[in-house]
Specification:
The complex is a heterodimer of chains A (325) and B (261).
Chain A: E1 4-13, E2 19-32, E3 35-38, H1 43-57, E4 62-70, E5 74-81, E6 87-93, H2 103-112, E7 123-129, E8 132-138, E9 142-143, H3 144-150, H4 154-173, E10 176-177, E11 186-189, E12 192-195, E13 202-203, H5 220-223, H6 232-247, H7 257-267, H8 285-294, H9 305-309, H10 312-315
Antiparallel strand pairs in A: 1-2, 2-3, 4-5, 5-6, 6-8, 7-8, 9-11, 10-13, 11-12
Helix pairs in contact in A: 4-6, 6-8
Chain B: H1 6-10, H2 13-16, H3 21-42, H4 50-67, H5 75-88, H6 97-111, E1 115-116, E2 119-120, H7 126-146, H8 156-166, E3 169-171, H9 174-187, H10 199-214, E4 217-218, H11 235-260
Antiparallel strand pairs in B: 1-2, 3-4
The chains are: A alpha+beta (325), B mainly alpha (261).
Keywords (chain A): ATP-binding, Kinase, Nucleotide-binding, Serine/threonine-protein kinase, Transferase
Catalytic activity (chain A): L-threonyl-[protein] + ATP = O-phospho-L-threonyl-[protein] + ADP + H(+); L-seryl-[protein] + ATP = O-phospho-L-seryl-[protein] + ADP + H(+)
GO molecular function (chain A): ATP binding; cyclin binding; cyclin-dependent protein serine/threonine kinase activity
Chain lengths: 325, 261
């Protein structure tokens, strides 16, 4: 008994092999059990999406719409939940045939499962499609870098800084170090930030690898190859990010570890380093005090996330980032 | 907070599959020994985080084995996969599947009695390597699904580090006590008590056992409370702690008696 089902697929094939729904091209094809009947000459190219749609028929929930990011870990897609019509982000991990599930995926899943906070990305589920692990997460269309290109409302910037600190305080209270805080790992929607990418995160342990955090946001102790660091590395990254929000450009743009360390030491020299640099003159004193406490070279002198959220800059509702004149 | 309530802890998949308590204890102990034998080959014990790694691997194994009957999985492959998973989760380890596969094959060749679904592992050739590494990767995937991808496991070693910094002896060598307690701390994973007792209780139990064995008395804390209230908020919780230390010690002794019989 042959059960032949005829479908029309709307698809566009991009150069990198990602298949995206579109109404530009239409291919007719049929399924006969698992055999594909298709007259198209590009059968070879479209077979993956046909198999994908066959799995949709078997209750797979997500359809990829477009690729929105790519990194060493894998690819992120914007996708749609076929059951709820909700737009989600699908993070697909590259799986090695010989090493199984990547360690960054393992850490990200196990840590995100512990972190239920409005300013931390929500892991909806993890699924395996075609033997590849996908994390299903809430979708946001802008990261902090993109956001800062268009929005400079001081009230919202202060709110974003405060909410990021609240999220980091929550992470640290669970004995977790994020280890990769940077503007690209903070997404923003409706002026509310969420922290993402926990692939490098670790539960605090006395011995950890120093090769973490994007170079521009890396704490001095990591640049000096220290193995026994703690939550203070995240606070350094936050100091860099908060100042980047205020300056609208990255603070230290090193090209190597040594260069980064030199840039840091050239700027932060002595207790009142911020007074020696004209670009900080426009900032409110309370804001400067917060930054100074975050950007301490000595990690033991750096403010903790708990202390940061109690800083007078946030307690005083009239304290803004910039001086008023 | 306890991972499982008492009724759930006692209701393992193997017990539902008609294994007696004695049989389960013996198989769990055998699995623990498999892990130790693998570690002799892997030589991870030089790492500063070895105890964290080993305790996490055994915790993962017990969490998995609680849900799947011992009849339904190969304990050698799954123990290798648990060690591999724990190594992956550890910053300081070389976690290539190659190392774990090679250790597994060496183990099988040395033991001669181990088979994989009826297939004897006697040669260290490329086909065997491919087969074993695939089995370990498949087992890893199965374990992750069964434990809900949750590797955020607090192991007793974290509490033990804290205890080592805070406890002193009124009489006797406290360092010697810590050495013995460290051994007990690993041995307490030879059954699945970690599914019921919290990591702090396991830590205190190991220190209590070492203290009794060596007849070393541990001093009260600086606030005048007994040393075993180290992780407690108040007197009420300490009463519960003392009760659970006693309970767990009895459980461990009961398992040892079964293994001797």
């Amino acid at each position: 008994m042959n059960s032949i089902i005829q479908y029309q697929l709307y698809l566009r094939i991009e150069n990198d092999g990602v298949f995206i729904l579109s109404n530009k091209q239409i291919y007719d094809y049929q399924f006969e059990y698992n055999r594909i009947i298709c007259d198209s000459q590009i059968l070879y190219q479209i077979k993956d999406i046909i198999y994908y749609y066959m799995s949709v028929l078997e209750n797979v929930r997500y359809i990829k719409i477009q690729k929105i990011g790519e990194g060493a870990y894998g690819i992120i897609y914007k996708a749609q939940d076929v059951q709820t019509q909700e737009i989600v982000a699908l993070k697909k991990f590259k799986l090695s045939d010989y090493e199984g599930v990547p360690s960054c995926a393992l850490r990200e899943i196990s840590i995100l499962k512990q972190l239920n906070h409005p300013n931390i990305i929500k892991l909806i589920s993890q699924i395996i499609i075609n033997k590849k692990l996908h994390l299903v997460m809430n979708y946001y269309d802008k990261d902090l870098t993109e956001y800062l290109k268009f929005y400079h409302e001081e009230f919202h910037l202060k709110n974003i800084i405060y909410k990021i600190l609240l999220a980091v305080e929550f992470i640290h209270s669970r004995k977790i170090i994020h280890r990769d805080l940077q503007p690209n790992n903070i997404l923003v929607k409706n002026n509310e930030p969420v922290i993402i990418d926990f692939g490098l995160s670790r539960v605090f342990s006395p011995n950890l690898t120093p090769g973490v955090t994007q170079l521009w946001y890396r704490a001095p102790e990591l640049l000096q190859n220290c193995h026994s660091y703690d939550y203070a590395i995240d606070m350094w990254s936050l100091g860099c990010i908060i100042l980047e929000i205020a300056l609208n450009k990255p603070l230290f743009m090193g090209q190597s570890e040594i260069h980064q360390l030199l840039l840091i030491k050239n700027l932060i020299d002595g207790d009142e380093w911020f007074k020696q640099n004209s670009q900080f003159a426009k900032f409110n004193n309370l804001f400067i005090d917060l930054i100074n406490k975050l950007l301490q070279i000595d990690p033991t002198k750096r403010i903790t996330s708990k202390q940061a959220i109690q800083h007078p800059f946030f307690q005083d509702q009239f304290a803004f980032i910039y001086n008023n004149e | 907070m306890k991972l499982l309530i008492y009724e759930d802890w006692k209701n393992s998949a193997s017990s539902r599959d008609n294994f007696t308590f004695q049989q389960e204890v013996k198989i769990q102990s055998e699995c623990y020994q498999i892990a130790r034998d693998f570690e002799i080959l892997l030589q991870n014990n030089e790492h500063s985080t070895f105890n964290h790694y080993f305790q996490k691997a055994l915790s993962i194994f017990h969490r998995f084995a609680h849900q799947i009957s011992f009849k339904k999985f190969n304990r050698h492959i799954y123990m290798a996969a648990c060690l591999f998973l724990s190594a992956k989760d550890n910053d300081m380890f070389d976690w290539s599947v190659k190392r774990y596969t090679n250790a597994f094959i060496s183990y099988c060749i040395s033991k001669k009695t181990v088979d994989l679904d009826g297939l004897k592992i006697e040669n260290d050739d490329q086909n065997t390597f491919k087969l074993i590494s695939e089995k370990i990767i498949d087992a890893e995937s199965h374990i992750l699904q069964m434990i809900g991808y949750d590797l955020n496991i607090v192991v007793p070693q974290i509490y033990f580090q804290e205890a080592k910094n805070k406890l002193i002896a009124t009489q006797g060598d406290i360092q010697q006590l810590f050495e013995f307690a460290q051994k007990y701390l690993l041995d307490l994973f030879l059954n699945n008590a970690c599914l019921y007792y919290e990591p702090k209780i396991i830590t205190l139990c190991a220190i209590t056992m070492a203290s009794k064995l060596l007849k070393i008395t541990i001093a009260d804390l600086s606030n005048g409370n007994p040393w075993n209230s180290l992780f407690d908020q108040n007197q009420e919780s300490n009463i519960q702690t003392q009760k659970e230390i006693q309970e767990m010690t009895n459980y461990f002794d009961q398992c040892i008696q079964i293994l001797k019989s």
